[in-house]
Amino acid sequence: MEPMVALNIAVLTVSDTRNEETDRSGQALVERLTNAGHTLAEKRIVPDDVYRIRAVVAEWIADSDVQVVITTGGTGFTGRDSTPEAISVLLDKRIEGFGERFRQLSGEEIGSSTIQSRCLGGLANATVVFCLPGSTGACRTGWDGILADQLDSRHKPCNFANLVIPGRGQHG
């Protein structure tokens, strides 16, 4: 079996209240991605502000060293939740199935409350971007149920890793 190609992944926590000590969701993502053999490119925390979120993600999308961006937080329906609005305008293509699959998995855990999740995924400048809810459980669900496989270059029949690995640019 071919070896997995490690990806450079940036993690952004969107929160008005969390800091590095209390950011369990961002920490869970960092732990999972590094345990899977990937590299943490950078981790930041920004307030739930559409322009600050967009600025950080746009910076990472423009950085050829960052292949994947994962955000956590700001995907709900409260007044300050603005991650989807910040990110969607940056995407060249949306991954419609990401949100659908996430809500399917999440529904098994939290029932009908999953319909309030506005998580999304997409491709921008050869970088895949995934926006997960802010709960630690949702981050585990998103990573374990979707991202672990889709960011593994060996996953068949297709994966997103091979779209962002230089020289591959294909699913398989």
Mean pLDDT: 94
How far is the N terminus from the C terminus?
14 Å
Write the H/E string, N to C.
EHEHEHEHEEHH
Number of strands: 6
**Count of discrete structural domains:** 1
Text of the CATH class: Alpha Beta
Strand arrangement in the largest pleated sheet: 2-1-3-6-5-4
Which architecture name does CATH use?
3-Layer(aba) Sandwich
Share in helix = 25-40%
Radius of gyration: 15 Å
Return the structural class: alpha/beta
Name given to the CATH homologous superfamily: MoaB/Mog-like domain
Shape: globular
Strand content: 15-25%
Low-confidence stretches: none
CATH topology: Molybdenum Cofactor Biosythetic Enzyme, Chain A
Strand count, sense and closure of the main sheet? 6 strands, mixed
Count of individual helical segments: 6
InterPro entries: MoaB, MoaB/Mog-like_dom_sf, MoaB/Mog_dom, MoaB_proteobac, MoCF_biosynth_CS
Protein name: Molybdenum cofactor biosynthesis protein B
Organism: Vreelandella sulfidaeris
Keywords: Molybdenum cofactor biosynthesis
